[in-house]
Design a protein that fits this description.
40% of the residues lie in helices and 0% in strands. 2% of the residues are buried. The protein has a domain at 27-70. It has four helices and no strands. The protein has helices at residues 29-35, 46-53, 57-67, 86-101. The longest helix has 16 residues, at 86-101.
Length: 106
């Protein structure tokens, strides 16, 4: 703050000192916080405890590695479970309903 004033090398006028704050919110803080929603809060795992305490990018990477999770690679598709066989389910449901409603004559 107590430095001598300097002249602009381009125009020769006196330069003005601009002071800015050093703390700013990280660009990735919102997505890291959203991951905390799925982290097991009761876990005793040290990587999980550290990530919950300090959700930084480094702790996120350590948590992912410790839990065996990984990001999808570009072009990689998510594995979806096979669609259920609705015809089979309908048939089983119908058969069970008939079984419950049947009347036996002896």
């Amino acid at each position: 703050m107590n430095q001598d004033k300097k002249k602009c090398p381009d125009c020769g006028s006196m330069a003005k000192k601009i002071i800015s704050g050093s703390h700013r919110e990280q660009d990735d803080s919102k997505w890291i916080r959203s991951i905390l929603d799925v982290v097991d809060k009761e876990s005793k795992d040290p990587h999980t405890r550290e990530f919950l305490k300090r959700p930084t990018r480094e702790n996120y990477k350590n948590w992912m590695k410790a839990t065996g999770l990984r990001h999808f690679e570009p072009g990689e598709e998510r594995q979806r479970p096979p669609a259920p066989d609705l015809d089979k389910i309908n048939k089983e449901t119908w058969n069970r309903l008939q079984e419950r409603r049947r009347i036996e004559v002896r």
